[in-house]
Amino acid sequence: MKKLSAVFLGILLITFSLTLNPMELSYAISPLEEKAILKKELVENSIADILDMVADEKSVKKIEKAQKQFEKGNLYFDEGNFKKAVKHYDKALKQIQKTLNEPHMKKMKIVDEGAGDFTGDGLDDVYLKITNPGKPNKGIKVDFKITDACVNGATYEDAGMKMAFSTGKFLTPEGLVDEGFEITNEWFKKKKNDDNKQIDPFTHYTTLFMLPESGDDLIQKKIDSKEGSFEHNEIISEIGDQTGWEGSFEFKGPAGDYKMNFFLPHSDFGVDGCDNLAGFAVDMTIKS
Description:
Largest sheet: 7 strands, mixed
Radius of gyration: 20 Å
Number of domains: 2
Structural class: alpha+beta
Helix content: 10-25%
Shape: globular
């Protein structure tokens, strides 16, 4: 079994959800201005959220640096210099990402199958197996196993996980792809479980600290249903005989290089074990 290589990108990269309402804009905006608007809201929301969870002097100083960069960015934003505004917003985000020492977002590379120990205890927390039939009319299948701790619970009410495909830099809002993909599994294919019979990916986010409101939860069950979209088991051999969730889904999409991003609940703002894992991504190529 291949181990998944991880790149630590900073503890505070968590999902966010941004929706721009065209009715609020009285003129057409350029792509650069739209990017500045997105980054501005992202930094502002993230600073507000993180102030509620840091207390040590070192972290507070980093947030103060982030605030200064944010204020500089706002000055350029008000002047219409969106290029320099984005530059300072990015500097603010880097300070936010440095606030805590524990890694919080991970990127993994996987070819056929692999597992990742995200907590450093010697036991794998996530296992994935990707099966590509190599036929245009057949979807790529993903078998998925993950511990209770990483999805924040052992019940359908508590556990959660959302996904989306992206291009470009790792987990940047500009790179999210919400068109051209078909994602589903046997549970979602039933009309009584999901209206469009698809696993809808999240499409946007507005803070670095919450699951996005958009998109379907991969782990769910209807009140009157015996089975859920994923199955909970007490012992899963692929993740060190730990308790967790097992499931699978398949997808089709346009040819190209993508990152398959998974976002996990982080409601308690913990830093122990899988509490410090907000999500991970898998590099993959879809061939024509």
